């Protein structure tokens, strides 16, 4: 387990992967280039030596032109052949067309026959040149050509000059070159290692800074800001996204604090009122029955208000849970809206507010009937609460091939522009005094928005102060999880 953890630690590191990739990309061309240099140098030096030996042998061969190869090997030529063999540091054989050795600088095989692949190839006009790295010897076979009348001026091969020369000095030069190339490889590898390490370290710095800042956020510090200086385009995009997320977290944290403060205030206000009323009754002597009943009625109203706040809070808590808790069924939306308006009409009638229902077509959709009924009820009740006496509330139902629409319009007081972006915040009230008078808790639109979102729908507001407000709810006909 320890070895596996260590392996993952290194291979999972961005810095290590960049370093490893750069080393591979640098070492492969370096080693390949070094090998090409060594091969090129080895081939060049061998070709150079073979060319030198070939020229010397061809010069000697030119001096041996004649009709009889045996006559050409006189004392002077013997001395020259011995000098050539000594100069080349090797052994020289002279073989005639019958494969008989006419001359051997070692004197071991003279007048014997030599039938070898090299000799046969040379007599067949296939020159033979070879360097053996194992024995460190150069072998060269040069044909001896003599012009005869029978061949109409063509050259005929009458013999072969076979030279075997020591190539020890070639091996020394190749080894010296290999050492120099090895030194270059080591130096290049060290430079490559340093540059790869520096680049890998600096290239991961933006990611390291990002992790450091995220750890600060993890510790609860939401006042930090992710810096985009010195980063790449990719990291800048990620950092900008993190900054937006962090800004959202700050907003959520601020909303949470405001929510807790608002909840505390909203729950405390009825309790304070009840405490004042109760103390007045307790401290008062001979309190008249009418005043006693009035105070008790006020206390009962405050209890109802406290109960409504608690119920709305519980509803919001349930709305915040997963959408899988929706009880989806096929519901007739037209009938649902008509039942809601039937319940609200008695309240609207007390203020002479007319409620109008428009159904453009029958609509059946997959919804949670209870939750959707709560959302629509909130919109209609708000249209009544924040309306003028003698006004109107118009509710319409429509649909297309994909969505159904519920529009709630009223002739009420309207919502100011600066408040329209905040009306879905919990406990937010445009007119706090009037909201309390109408019994509002500031949670109705928050509940409505949550219900619409749980159904994968949307809600849109259009309002003009003094003229009225319109809410348009759009929900898919088919619910898809």
UniProtKB/TrEMBL annotation:
GO terms for biological process: cellular response to phosphate starvation. It is found in: Membrane. One of its GO terms (molecular function) is phosphorelay sensor kinase activity. Residues 201-254 form the HAMP domain. It comes from the Bacteria. It catalyses: ATP + protein L-histidine = ADP + protein N-phospho-L-histidine. Its main location: membrane. Its EC number is 2.7.13.3. CDD domains: HATPase (cd00075), HisKA (cd00082). InterPro entries: BphY/WalK/GraS-like (IPR050351), HAMP_dom (IPR003660), HATPase_C_sf (IPR036890), HATPase_dom (IPR003594), His_kinase_dom (IPR005467), HisK_dim/P_dom (IPR003661), HisK_dim/P_sf (IPR036097), Sig_transdc_His_kin-like_C (IPR004358). Residues 262-479 form the Histidine kinase domain. One of its GO terms (cellular component) is plasma membrane. Keywords: Kinase, Membrane, Phosphoprotein, Transferase, Transmembrane, Transmembrane helix, Two-component regulatory system. The chain crosses the membrane at residues 14-32, 181-201. This is histidine kinase.
